Amino acid sequence: MREIITLVETASKPQEVEIVPLAYTETELSPVMSKATMEYHYGKLAHAYADKFNRGEGDRAFNYAGAFLHNLFFPQFRKPRQNNKPNGPIANLINQKFGSWDDFKQAFEDEAMKVQGSGWVYLARDGKIKVIHNHSVRDDILILVDWWEHAWSLDYQSEKKDYLKNIWRIFDWNVINTRWGKAYE
User: Are the CB atoms for 45 and 150 separated by under 8 Å?
Assistant: First the structure.
């Protein structure tokens, strides 16, 4: 049975993946994400998932999902803004499901802080905050936060909450609103 599932999973994946280029420089997300974090996280780790998948090394599903998630994570950012609040459809969804932007951020933080170990936290199309342990491809991601240690430890040491409080400053709500109308492949 597992062999059949593996064949189906493999058949639905492309033969090769690549990490999308950044629409900003590695220094433009500072101070939310430092150049050192970007060089390590984007420049090395994210690309390693694609490279390992393309070479057929290790767990292909894990590496494919790692590349997939990083291809959603990095393009959703822009230069930091002090009062960076959502607009458009994503703001409407947040207000409808959580009452306010501040209530959403608190609910997101509460859910994220429950994660033991590594993973991802995201707002899904159905308005629920969900967790991905390790890596997994999902087709319902609107807002995605990398909760693996490499995403925050260089800049925030043990202060994960500070990473989460600051990351909202760099979201590009135009990208998020575009996702709202897109289906993932």
Answer: yes
Question: Could you tell me which residues are beta bridge partners of residue 171?
Answer: 77
Side-chain half-sphere exposure of 95, counting CA atoms within 13 A: 8
C-alpha to C-alpha distances, 36 to 30, 46, 150, 154, 155, nearest whole angstrom: 10, 14, 11, 8, 9
What's the mean pLDDT in 9-16?
63
pLDDT, tens digit, for every residue of 99-120? Answer: 999 999 999 999 999 998 889 9
Sheet containing 141-146: order of strands = 129-133, 119-124, 141-146
What does pLDDT average to over the chain?
A: 89
pTM: 0.88
- Domains parsed from the chain with CATH numbers: 88-180 (3.55.40.20)
pLDDT tens digits, 134-166:
999 999 999 999 999 888 888 888 898 999 999
Give 118-184 as a DSSP string: SEEEEEETTS-EEEEES----S-EEEEEE-SHHHHHHHHTT-HHHHHHHHGGGB-HHHHHHHHT---
Rounded to 5 degrees, φ, ψ at 122 are -150, 155
> pLDDT above 70 covers what percent of the chain?
91
Alpha carbons 32 and 124: distance in angstroms, whole number: 24
Which H or E run contains 90?
helix 88-98
